[in-house]
C-alpha cells in the first residue's frame, strides 16, 4: 500500500524477548505478488495466469515458488460465524480452489491480510476490506485451512476504523499476536511483516517476529529510480540484521514494469539479491520483455540471494554522485560486491578493491557470467546510466587497513559557529548538531603529518532524518567538507538509524589540501540544509 507523506516518528522501543523458530525462510522467499503490476485490482484469472506463468517460464525451477495474494481479494464483511471471506467478484471459484490450483502446480500459496480494523487498499482507505485485528487466532486457522504457506501482513487502520495510516501504531504487539496465532495452527506459514519500516522493525526484534520485515515505504507503483535510492539509503544502517529465517524486505521487484530502464532494473535486481531481500516478481508475466526475463533468471545472482550463509551486503563507500560500493561474504568464503553508477549517463567506473578490503582478487562478473581473471588494485569498466557492476571475488588478498587518528567534534579545540551546537547523546557520546543552514563545525589543530597532501578521512555521524517520501536527499543528508578553506566537497550521508542515538562509523572521504604539521582545519557546512550530527573525524595516518 502506498503512503506518500513525510513524517517524523518517535522510536518505539519494543523490549520483548521472542524466538521465531518456525524453520521457514532459511533463505529469502521468492515468488510472485501482483501489487506492483495490478495494485489491488487482482482477479482470480490474474493469479491463475501468474501461477501458470511461473511454471511456463521456468521461474519455479529457479526458486520462484510462492504465488501470493495481495490487497483486493478479500471480502468486506465476515460470514455468520465471524470467519474471513473472499470477494466472490474477484475470486469466483473461491480461495480454497485457487489454493488447490496453485498447489497442483507444485507452487506454494500466500495469503494477504492486515493487522488493523480494515486492510490497505489503493483508493485511499475507502474500500474497507476485512482486516484481522481482534480475529488473529480464527483468521490464522482459516488461512491454514485454506492451505496458506505464507502470510503478508499489512498495517492499515491499525488503531481504529477511521485512521487509514497511523504512524505510531502498536505494530509490534499486532505482529506478535499474529505470529503466535500462525504458530498455533501448526501449519508452516512464512510470516511477512509489512509495516513499511515504521518503528524500526529490524530492531523490535522483528527478526524474532517475522521471517521478513519491510524496511521502507513502498517501492511503487509507479517505479522510479528515486524510489530505489530512497530504499537503498534506508537499508544502510540495518544490513547486519539479515539472517537465516529473518530478512530485510526491500519490497517487491519492479523488474518488467515501466518506470525503470533496463540498466536500472538490473541494478535493482542485483542489489536486492545481494541484500538478501525476498525476491517477489511483481509484473505481468504474460507481457515480459526478454531483457527483463533474463534479469529475473540470472542464476548467479539468485545463488547469491539464496546463499546459505545468509549475510547481506553492507555499505562500504559512497563516492557522492558517482558510485557506491557495497559488499558482503558468501558461504564459500568469497565476496559479492555491488557497485552502483549514480551518474545519469553511462561512464567508465573504477572499482577500487581496497574499498572491500582487498589488494587483488579473482573476479567473475555475475551479470554476464564472464570470468574477469585476477583484478589488481582496481577494475575499470563502462557502466550504463544507473547500471552496476556485480562481482564475485575469490582468493582475495587483504589490503593493508588504514589506521586513523580521531578528533572528536565536541571539544574545545573546535569552532562551532552560526548555530552549530553540541548535543549530549548519552553518558559517553556528545555530538555537534545544527550544522548547516549557516551553522558550521570546524575541526582545528588537525595533524597533516610530515608531508600533508591528500588524506583519507573517516566520519562517525548520526543521521535519523528518515522519510517515506522522496526528497532532495531521501534518507540521507548532504554535508560539505573543506580542508584549510579549500573547495568544499559534497558527502551524501545515508541515515544511520531511525533514532538520534545510533552512530554510523567510518564514512570515508579522500580530501586533498592538507599541510604538513598540526595547523590544519576541516570545516563541515551546508548552505541550504542541515548535515548529520557529527561525533568525530578520523584522519588516516
Ligand atoms: C482514531 O485514531 C486517531 C489517531 O490516534 C485519532 O486521532 C482519532 O480520533 C481516532 N478516531 C476514533 C473514531 O476513535
Ligand atoms: C540526475 O538527474 C536528476 C534529474 O535531473 C538530478 O536531480 C540528479 O542530480 C542527477 N544525478 C546526478 C548524479 O548527476
Ligand atoms: C586539542 O588539540 C591538541 C593538539 O592536537 C590536542 O593535544 C588536545 O588533546 C586537543 N584537545 C581536546 C580537548 O581535544
Ligand atoms: C552511547 O551511544 C553509542 C552510540 O549509539 C553507543 O555505542 C554506546 O553504547 C552508548 N553508551 C551508553 C553508555 O549508553
Automatic annotation (TrEMBL):
Signal peptide: 1-19
Documented EC number(s): 3.2.1.22
Catalytic activity: Hydrolysis of terminal, non-reducing alpha-D-galactose residues in alpha-D-galactosides, including galactose oligosaccharides, galactomannans and galactolipids
SUPFAM superfamilies from the UniProt entry: (Trans)glycosidases, Glycosyl hydrolase domain
A molecular function GO annotation: alpha-galactosidase activity
BP term (GO), one: carbohydrate metabolic process
Broad enzyme group: hydrolase
Keyword DNA repair: no
Annotated transmembrane regions: none
Record keywords: Disulfide bond, Glycosidase, Hydrolase, Signal
Keyword Hydrolase: yes
InterPro entries: Aldolase_TIM, GH, Glyco_hydro_27, Glyco_hydro_b, Melibiase_C
Record domain Alpha galactosidase C-terminal: where: 321-393
UniProt family annotation: Belongs to the glycosyl hydrolase 27 family.
Protein name (database record): Alpha-galactosidase
Organism: Gymnopilus junonius
Lineage: Eukaryota, Fungi, Dikarya, Basidiomycota, Agaricomycotina
Amino acid at each position: 500500500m502506498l503512503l506518500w507523506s513525510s513524517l517524523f516518528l518517535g522510536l518505539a522501543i519494543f523490549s520483548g524477548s521472542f524466538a521465531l523458530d518456525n524453520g521457514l525462510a532459511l533463505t529469502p522467499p521468492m515468488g510472485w505478488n501482483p501489487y506492483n503490476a495490478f495494485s489491488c485490482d487482482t482477479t482470480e484469472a490474474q493469479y491463475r495466469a501468474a501461477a501458470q506463468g511461473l511454471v511456463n517460464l521456468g521461474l519455479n525451477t529457479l526458486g520462484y515458488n510462492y504465488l501470493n495474494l495481495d490487497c483486493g481479494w478479500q471480502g468486506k464483511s465476515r460470514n455468520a460465524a465471524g470467519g474471513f471471506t473472499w470477494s466472490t467478484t474477484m475470486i469466483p471459484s473461491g480461495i480454497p480452489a485457487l489454493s488447490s490450483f496453485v498447489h497442483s502446480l507444485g507452487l506454494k500459496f500466500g495469503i494477504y491480510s492486515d493487522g488493523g480494523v480494515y486492510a490497505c487498499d489503493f483508493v485511499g482507505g475507502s474500500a474497507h476490506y476485512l482486516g484481522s485485528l481482534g480475529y488473529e487466532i480464527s483468521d490464522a486457522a482459516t488461512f491454514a485451512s485454506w492451505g496458506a504457506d505464507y502470510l503478508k501482513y499489512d498495517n492499515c487502520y491499525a488503531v481504529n476504523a477511521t485512521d487509514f495510516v497511523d504512524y505510531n501504531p502498536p505494530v509490534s504487539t499486532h505482529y506478535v499476536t499474529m505470529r503466535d496465532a500462525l504458530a498455533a495452527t501448526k501449519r508452516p506459514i512464512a510470516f511477512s511483516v509489512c509495516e513499511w519500516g515504521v518503528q524500526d522493525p529490524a530492531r523490535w526484534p522483528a527478526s524474532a517476529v517475522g521471517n521478513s520485515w519491510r524496511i521502507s515505504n513502498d517501492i511503487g507503483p509507479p517505479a522510479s529510480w528515486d524510489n530505489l535510492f530512497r530504499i537503498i539509503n534506508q537499508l544502510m544502517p540495518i544490513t547486519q540484521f539479515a539472517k537465516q529465517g529473518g530478512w530485510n524486505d526491500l519490497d517487491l521487484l519492479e523488474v518488467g514494469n515501466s518506470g525503470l530502464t533496463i540498466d536500472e532494473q538490473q541494478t535493482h535486481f542485483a542489489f536486492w539479491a545481494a541484500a538478501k531481500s525476498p525476491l517477489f516478481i511483481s509484473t505481468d508475466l504474460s507481457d515480459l520483455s526478454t531483457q527483463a526475463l533474463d534479469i529475473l533468471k540470472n542464476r548467479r545472482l539468485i545463488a547469491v540471494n539464496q546463499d546459505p550463509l545468509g549475510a547481506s551486503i553492507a555499505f562500504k563507500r559512497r563516492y557522492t554522485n558517482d558510485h557506491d560500493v557495497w559488499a558482503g561474504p558468501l558461504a564459500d568464503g568469497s565476496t559479492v560486491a555491488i557497485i552502483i553508477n549514480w551518474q545519469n549517463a553511462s561512464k567508465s567506473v573504477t572499482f577500487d578493491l581496497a574499498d572491500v578490503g582487498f589488494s587483488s582478487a579473482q573476479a567473475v562478473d555475475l551479470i554476464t557470467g564472464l570470468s574477469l581473471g585476477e583484478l589488481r588494485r582496481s577494475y575499470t569498466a563502462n557502466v550504463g546510466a544507473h547500471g552496476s557492476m556485480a562481482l564475485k571475488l575469490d582468493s582475495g588478498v587483504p589490503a593493508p587497513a588504514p589506521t586513523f587518528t580521531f578528533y572528536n567534534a565536541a571539544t574545545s579545540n573546535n569552532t562551532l559557529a552560526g548555530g552549530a551546537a553540541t548535543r549530549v547523546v548519552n553518558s559517553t557520546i556528545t555530538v555537534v548538531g545544527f550544522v548547516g543552514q549557516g551553522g558550521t563545525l570546524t575541526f582545528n589543530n588537525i595533524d597533516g603529518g610530515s608531508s600533508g597532501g591528500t588524506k583519507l578521512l573517516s566520519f562517525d555521524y548520526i543521521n535519523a532524518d528518515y522519510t517515506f517520501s522522496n526528497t532532495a536527499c531521501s534518507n540521507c543528508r548532504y554535508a560539505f567538507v573543506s580542508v584549510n578553506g579549500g573547495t568544499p566537497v559534497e558527502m551524501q550521508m545515508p541515515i544511520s538509524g531511525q533514532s538520534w542515538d545510533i552512530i554510523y562509523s567510518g564514512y570515508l572521504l579522500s580530501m586533498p589540501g592538507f599541510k604538513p604539521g598540526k595547523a590544519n582545519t576541516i570545516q563541515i557546512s551546508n548552505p541550504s540544509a542541515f548535515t548529520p550530527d557529527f561525533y568525530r573525524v578520523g584522519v588516516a595516518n
